[in-house]
Amino acid sequence: MTAKAAKAATPTGAIPATPARSAETRRRRLVAAAFLLPALVLLGALVVHPIGYSLYRSFFDRSGDTFVGGANYGEILHDDTIRTALRNTALWVVLAPTTATALGLIFAVLTERVRWGTAFKLLVFMPMAISMLAAGIIFRLVYDHDPHRGIANAVWVGVHDTFAESSAFPKARPGRDSPLVPASGADAGGFTTRDPVRAGVPVLLPLVGVAPEDLPGGTRTARPAAAEPGKVTGTVWQDFTRGGGGRTNAVDPTESGLAGIRVEAVKDGRVVDSASARPDGTFTLSAKADGAVLRLPAANFREAYAGVEWLGPTLVTPAVIGAYVWMWAGFAMVLIGAGLAAVPRELLEAARVDGANEWQVFRRVTVPLLAPLLAVVLVTLVINVMKIFDLVFVIAPGSVQDDANVLALQLYRTSFGTDADPGLGSAIAVLLLVLVLPVMLYNIRRLRKEGAR
């Protein structure tokens, strides 16, 4: 072949391959492989081998000696506890990432318009510096059912009692041989006198069951009511003498009145008069009460509102999701805020000049421009949520862990619990991998598309 023919056979601008160049290429590949080898060994030891062994182990029984085929996977479909974990995991995937991403978007947009936005972002992002274990302990206390310990119920009870104050006598009840009997029908929970009362004849309404320290402020020593012509008078008091002694159904010198308790006079099922007991327990009703039955309505004995059972079977999963959102909304806010800073301001101003209000600018301009970033944040949180374990394990009490169960927690309980079954646990691990894999592949594909632009 002539030199001209060789030149024509070589692509324009290409450098002909030579033995020296081929050796250099091989050397560079060997150097790259040498640098990659430790990472590949670690990847194989910490990722590939556990995945392969889990897949292998999922086809064997509890002991690992007997091949059971797909029996462990069939057990996943028939075990009620695992199905609850699947259902709760689906609830997590739907609620937690969308809520955290939505709050992150709202925070990122709003903090752009305030001077103290940086401080607010710092406060919102601070939970990311807390471990899941620490956050779980914090929210276990936040959701405590006792309003004196759990801040969630303290706030809830405070708001409730602002509009519906609880009674000071929730455990009060008539004592032995009392003239009071339990009311029935619509008045259930209250007490009524056995017989109608008469004007000018004082009435005694003794109750027991109220601890001295629980008596309302301003309570005084009880005294018998004086008779008043044409009026019904009486005394409602704590018929209990501290240290023992005293007379039953009689006002003793050291016994306390039940201040503020409501007394109603009822005739033919209708309240004709009412009064509240004074600090010494005495009360006075008008002549309308003559011949009526006195009633202590159930409102006097209503139990104090104890708040919401946040960690009960019904609300435990939403409560734990709330703790997760508290942690990860800051993560979403920071990423979305970075994307928002790159949005061309002229587009927003052009929309405003065209007459769009702020909501329209946000919905039709800002959100579409941030859509790729929102998708990345959402998918990242979905992957994170599908592996959630420690928050559920720490926050949910043992009595409701079956109700709050998720796949990662069920994997731990099945593989390492008191009745451990490594075969079934490996099957759950493979199922979790299969569920996470499509989301990961979608995220990688999206990132590659973004990088190619």
From TrEMBL:
Biological source species: Streptomyces roseus
Keywords in alphabetical order: Cell membrane, Membrane, Transmembrane, Transmembrane helix, Transport
Full protein name: ABC transporter permease
ABC transmembrane type-1 domain: residues covered: 86-443
SUPFAM superfamilies: MalF N-terminal region-like, MetI-like
Record-level GO cellular component terms: plasma membrane
Membrane protein topology class: Multi-pass membrane protein
Localization terms from the record: Cell membrane
Transmembrane segments: 30-52, 90-110, 122-143, 323-344, 365-386, 424-444
Pfam family, one: BPD_transp_1
Keyword hit for Membrane: yes
Region entry Disordered, spans: 1-21
Record's compositionally biased regions (Low complexity): 1-20
Keyword Secreted set for record: no
Family per similarity comment: Belongs to the binding-protein-dependent transport system permease family.
Domain of life of the source: Bacteria
